[in-house]
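Repro:
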Amino acid sequence: RAAPVRASCPQAAETAAAAAIAAASCHGRVEVAAARTERDQVFANANGTFTAIQAATVQRIRRADGTWATPDATLRRGAGGYAPVAASLDATFSAGGTAPLAVVRRDGAELTLRWPGALPEPVASGGTLTYPEVLPGVDLVVTAEVEGVGETLVVKTAQAAADPRLATVRLAATTRGMSLREGEAESLVAVSAAGKTLFSSGTPMMWDSSGQGEASTAGPAVGGATAAMPLTMAAGAAG
């Protein structure tokens, strides 16, 4: 006598109830689509239980149209400047000129940062943009990541390091739907109108290339000198 044909399991069902019915019918595991987030997934099991999987980092990106994409911080140029292919933090970076250095958005709120003066056209490579010679002997490097952004000033000579304009670097900041506050350890925190923390900067750092190996925009070489940098806020600006 032929064995009964077991139904194949769908990848997902919209609700927990639908996923539980599908899992029991196919004797397998079915994802609850409505419970999916950038980090979390919930699966219905054939025995009526549910399994939740929580990741420490972003595993998928939800597009504006509701579909999901693989995280990819590679920067591509569009009409409004450069933006990551698929990142958790919605950010756009300047293609040069007087456009804002960066516009960062989350949950309908927006932060705009401007460099003091026009920017040169950047050189794009993967998730980084290099704006050459924003000051004599100094490059500005912006880095896009799946869950954040960063900016680094690369001071290429001792003569460039003596430029008094490096003593205090000022970025003009404007916000919509959020406010900026000074956090712990010289950090900057963006808070929504409802009091939710949208993102934070971490402690600004500087380092040199005196260690063993080559320093990079990601950090110093082994043994290189490092130091925390002070961060202050004035009306409409962070420096």
